[in-house]
Amino acid sequence: MKPLDPRLLRYASAARGYLAAAVLLGLAAAGLILLQAGLLARLLAGAIRGTGISALAAPLTALAVVLTLRAAASYGGELAALRAAAAVKSQLRRKLMAHVLRLGPAWLSGQQSGEITTLATKGLDGLDPYFGRYLPQLVLACLVPVAVLIRVAVADWISGLVIIATLPLIPVFGILIGRHTAIATRRQWQLLGRLGGHFLDVVEGLPTLKIFGWSTAQAAEIRKVTDEHRTVTMATLRVAFLSALVLELAATLATALVAVEVGLRLLAGHLSYQTALLVLILTPEAYLPLRNVGAQFHASMEGTTAAGRVFDILQTPAPAGAGAGRPGGGPVPVVKAPRTAVARLAGPVSLQDVSLHYPRRPQPALAGVSLTVHRGEHVVVSGPSGAGKSSLLALLLRFCEPTSGSIEIGGTSLATIPPALWREHVAWVPQQPHLFAATVAENIALGRSGAPAADIAAAAEMAGAAEFIEALPEGYSTVLRERGLQLSAGQRQRIALARAFLRDAPLLLLDEPASHLDPFSASDLQAILATLTASRTVIQVTHDPLAVTRASRVLTLAAGTLHQDIKALEVVR
Fold first, then answer.
1. Per-residue pLDDT for 435 more than 50?
2. What is the DSSP secondary-structure string of 178-208?
3. 453: containing domain
4. CATH code of residue 487
5. Are strands 537-541 and 378-382 parallel, antiparallel or unpaired?
6. Per the structure, how many domains does the chain have?
7. With 70 as the cut, is the pLDDT of residue 407 above it?
8. Contact assessment for residue 231 and residue 195, using Cβ atoms and an 8 Å cutoff
9. Looking at the whole model, is its pTM more than 0.90?
10. Using an 8 Å Cβ cutoff, are 509 and 426 in contact?
């Protein structure tokens, strides 16, 4: 690990002003240490010689002022460093969340959401010791030993040589121990992320685990990971405590060596009392910042390890529409189209020889797909699991970009339309819709912020959700738990459908919308979708035979290739 990670300054520019203030205050502290040592040596030497109190009044007053200023500089430096930490955490959290949104669900599906949550909360909180204690000590470790060494060498060159010879021992020991600590801390953080992600998955799937009798096995697995984390944490702490012992021992022996040679020369009359006192007072100050920086290094390791993981995520290329590369590698030029270009959605949605390759997957998700969907069509996409149906929807939602080929909307390349602007004209119902810890009305209005209550109720009626919503304790004002777990899967699906209907977008994308509905409700849904084709384009991924009979066209995908484009009635036969 580097003493100062430059990425923290590059990705968190808000901290630069605070860090500059901390450095200036560190310089002031270094000068004040020299003044304090000189005044103390003068006072003690004067007291030994029997100088009267009136003659020492001025040095005593000056010493009091210096001590006050040194305390103020120390307080100000730590305050500036803590402000820097707060600014860095805030900026990194905003950048992390913004970049995760740009990376999209395609990337997030391969990550542990618990790890990302831990990273953005407890992980980045670990930067407080890094900025609040480690960096101020690092500044002092760079300034104070040099200033002390120069002052001691001017007063007594022999003591200066002893300090020069012994001073490097502390950073050498610190580096050797720090390498071992970095490995242990990295392992600790990996286990913490694994524990957080696994625990979240287990809590969310606890009903299923209980039904199938796997809850005890999962509890044992969590206990195993927890024990591993505890073991690694204790090993890291043991290294930190032992490193403090080693650094303290090295500094103590070096100080004792200086004290012995100064004492012998003082007895021989080769040094004055004031010079000897000055050297003895300043010598510990030369080693103290290095000892402190070694101790604070271990306290800051968790935060810097978490920040390193954040930087890895920030450096992950986003989809081309968000300003990065294709799933397969090369960059895609994105030219922003004017807002009026989106009005061409009235034209057809056209895929021209589109292929999609995901990293680390040998086979393409889609291979040479060509398709044109006209306005008002209700197209059903069917096929076995893994055929590429969800990848087709992901392309239309701009969650990923084609590896080759192009997608056009009314003759305008989809890559030229900003993703946020394009998604304003798309409504999507995923197979597992997410409901938030908010009221039913707020969850439905997610598709159209600020929608009137009458429009929300009409959308719920259209989705067949009005009856059960009105039966809830507070109707549309009922607050749902996270993911809407107090509702059945079918009820959650209906709220998601109401959300999509309320959005009133020209393009409606549905991923198995009837998978959690009973046959009667699924029939009603298909009848509703059939009435939408006059004003909207509907692309529906489903295995429902009833949806096939009502569709304008049925597309069959297999192994990423479009094999058929036949009438729905032919599929039924």
1. yes
2. HHHHHHHHHHHHHHHHHHHHHHHHHHHTHHH
3. 435-504
4. 3.40.50.300
5. parallel
6. 2
7. yes
8. no
9. no
10. yes
